[in-house]
Amino acid sequence: MALACFVMAHTAELLLPAGATAYLVGGAVRDRLLGLRPYADQDWVVTGTTPEAMLAAGFQPVGKDFPVFLHPWTRQEYALARTERKTAPGYHGFVFHTAPEVRLEDDLLRRDLTINAMAAPPHSEQAPVIDPYGGQQDLQAKVLRHVSPAFAEDPVRILRLARFAARFPEFVVAPETEALMGDMVAAGEVDALVPERVWQELARGLMEAQPARMFEVLRRCGALQRLWPELNRLWGVPQRADYHPEVDTGIHTMMVLSQAVRMGAPLSVRFACLCHDLGKGNTPADILPRHLGHENRSEQLTRRVVQRLRIPNDCAELALLVAHEHSNIHRAADFDAAALLRLIERCDAFRRPQRFHEALQTCEADARGRLGFEEQPYRSRPRLERAFAVAAALPTAPIAAAAIARGAKGEAIAQAIHKARAQAIAQALAEAPAQRSE
Predict the structure, then answer these.
(1) How many C-beta atoms lie closer than 10 Å to residue 363's C-beta?
(2) Checking DSSP bridges between strand 143-144 and strand 119-120, what pairing results, if any?
(3) What Rg do the C-alpha atoms of the chain give, in angstroms?
(4) What's the longest Cα–Cα distance across the chain?
(5) Which of 32, 145, 296, 403 is the most buried if burial means most Cβ atoms within 10 Å?
(6) How far apart are CA 275 and CA 437, in angstroms?
(7) If DSSP states are collapsed to H, E and C, what string results for 6-53?
(8) Class of domain 2-135
(9) Is domain 228-437 classified as CATH 1.10.530?
(10) What is the pLDDT of residues 38-53, one digit of tens each?
(11) What is the DSSP letter of 168?
């Protein structure tokens, strides 16, 4: 790795305009100091030059808002050192200034966290890190701290900090940074975020080591209430202790998410875990701690969330399916063949088998996401998987041909296939009675 960095650095220097210097910045420097490999994507800041000189040297422009260039050979990004000035609410309201006299320290000052505001000379991993704002000290103390008051000018930084809390679970948020984020929420900065950017950061955070920490940070500063009020509403909502020893619905939802992480689940499953119980947040007070009908309410609220945040189809469709059917999937351990097949068909499993298996994975995370149930077997999943495998393996063309020969049409043909699948499932269950008592 050191040799690769050395070669790339010298390759860049051979092409840089006269008087220009490139520095490795941001996540790659942070991860190198943490001993993490592979390092984060390598980004470079260039001082002492102009956009025109970079173009003349063969670098290719990619930045829309400020000068960023691709190295013609390595394709790594080289951004000119810059300063910025806030001109409007939100994260688009900035005017950037680049010039040969802008120093590296000026560029680092505009970054989000001290641990991301360090730079390294291009030649060697052993060279001293350039650290004007205490990033190494905060790395050692495991603190996420903003670099300067300019943090408050970009609401995306709240989401980024929350994501870093999920990536580095042993780090804590500096009290003054958490207070600043609360002030930003109160000032309406978070309201200016566009849905696509919110989802981009949430999706990345969901795939980190402990994504529940991301939502913990967003809740504490008030941002979750502004960005995802349906999820924020779950904390403090009681559930029946005989089903949910953890009682609190918000805590349960984070436990479900943690189980999905433990299972190595994909993004779609992790998002569905967050949505499956949204309907418990508006259960009528007179029936608490029961949550009758929460499945339909969860589906309705999930539909609102996926539309507002413009969630990708694979995540949205799985979340809607799980919200509507998760209670039935939980009960499937005791279903007979006919009921199993009806559930499989409602899940559109024959056309969407991958989504069906992800729904079962989500429900297993839900079942295990309860105090004392983390290691308990989940009987519904193997029973449904067995039933689906048997039904899916059944050749349907001969069944349809026989039905047509009897004069069947349309729905009657579909009913013949349904009946044959139900019989095949019933036979498979009879041949494996032990599966009923797993």
Answers:
(1) 27
(2) unpaired
(3) 27
(4) 87
(5) 145
(6) 30
(7) HHHHHHHHHHCCCCCEEEEECHHHHHHHHCCCCCCCCEEEEECCCHHH
(8) alpha beta
(9) no
(10) 665 788 999 999 999 9
(11) S
Confidence of residue 436 (pLDDT cuts 50, 70, 90): very low
pLDDT in tens, 267-276: 999 999 999 9
Q: Is 32 flagged in the annotation as binding?
A: no
Q: What is the DSSP string of 239-290?
A: --TTT-TT-BHHHHHHHHHHHHHHTT--HHHHHHHHHTTGGGGG--GGGTT-
Q: 111 a known binding residue?
A: yes
Of 221, 224, 189, 179, the residue nearest 91 (C-alpha): 189
Domain boundaries, the chain: 2-135, 228-437
Please, are residues 356 and 317 in contact by the beta-carbon 8 Å criterion?
no
d(CA 359, CA 326): 8
Q: Does 346 carry a binding-site annotation?
A: no
Helices (H) and strands (E) in the chain, counts: 20, 10
Q: How far is 304 from 314, CA to CA, in rounded Å?
A: 16
pLDDT of residue 438: 38
The alpha-helical segments, DSSP class H, found in 117-266 are 135-141, 156-167, 175-186, 195-206, 212-221, 223-227, 229-232, 249-262
What distances in angstroms separate CA 109 from CA 32, 113, 117, 158, 267, one per listed residue?
Answer: 20, 9, 7, 17, 34
Q: Is 191 within any annotated ligand binding site?
A: no
Confidence of residue 407 (pLDDT cuts 50, 70, 90): confident
Cis omega before residue 195 (within 30°)?
no
* Pair of tokens at residue 387: 């039933």
Tell me: pLDDT of 2 over 60: no
313-331 and 353-368 are packed helices; what angle lies between their axes, rounded to 10 degrees? 60
75 has binding-site annotation: no
CA dihedral 31, 106, 164, 280 (to 10 degrees): -170
Sign of the dihedral defined by the CA atoms of residues 245, 165, 42, 30, in that order? negative
Q: What is the pLDDT of residue 82?
A: 85
pTM reported for the whole predicted model: 0.90
